[in-house]
Design goal:
This protein is an alpha+beta fold. The chain has two domains: 98 residues, 2-Layer Sandwich (Double Stranded RNA Binding Domain); 45 residues, Sigma 54 modulation/S30EA ribosomal protein, C-terminal domain (SHC Adaptor Protein). Helices cover 35% and strands 28% of the residues. A four-stranded mixed beta sheet has the order 1-2-3-4, covered by helices on one side. It has a three-stranded antiparallel beta sheet with strand order 5-6-7, with helices on one face. α1 packs parallel to α2. The model has no long low-confidence stretch (mean pLDDT 82). One of its GO terms (molecular function) is ribosomal small subunit binding.
């Protein structure tokens, strides 16, 4: 990896250069084969205060160039924040390559898969259940059954051939729909 350190409007001291180099070296852990890394530190005076701008330009093979620019009143803080943002960008690219592996058509064709067996496995199995719903019942009988069973509701047909629901309310009483 080629590393280029540049200072615009300020002189880069050895400690700042070492800090920038170690920051860029920390980006190697993502195994993204960084071709070159350019770090540019500049100083600006606005309203009597000095502001620092740090810009990292990372060139990756077969990918876009990553450009991170960070402003701060402290040069070391600007370098650290720019490093965090560069790590985040590289982590996203790395995760996208590792987690989103696409299977090609040739790999799919090489697998022997019986489509009929897979379709049969995916079908939902329907088990018929006989309901006691069809014979008319009295509300009192359903109420007694509901109190004895621990169910929250019961669906039944009353003597007038209407489908009814008897349910237990939150206040302990019963409701009829």
């Amino acid at each position: 990896m080629n590393i280029s350190l540049t200072g615009r409007g300020l002189e880069l001291t050895d400690t700042i250069k070492d800090h920038m180099r170690s920051s860029i070296d920390a980006l190697k852990k993502y195994n993204m084969d960084i071709i070159s890394a350019n770090a540019v530190a500049s100083s600006q005076h606005k309203k009597g205060k000095e502001h620092f701008n740090v810009e990292f330009v990372l060139n990756l093979p077969q990918k876009h160039t990553i450009v991170i620019s960070q402003n701060d009143g402290d040069l070391h803080a600007a370098i650290d924040i720019a490093l965090e943002r560069a790590e985040k960008a590289l982590r996203r690219l790395h995760d996208k390559e590792v987690d989103h592996h696409k299977t090609g058509l040739n790999e799919i064709k090489s697998e022997d898969v019986d489509v009929k067996e897979v379709a049969a496995e995916l079908e939902d199995e329907i088990v018929p259940v006989e309901l006691d719903l069809y014979k008319p019942r009295e509300v009192e009988d359903v109420l007694n059954d509901l109190k004895e069973s621990g169910k929250m509701f019961d669906i039944f047909i009353d003597n007038e051939d209407k489908t009814r629901v008897l349910y237990k309310r939150n206040d302990g009483k019963f409701g009829l729909y």
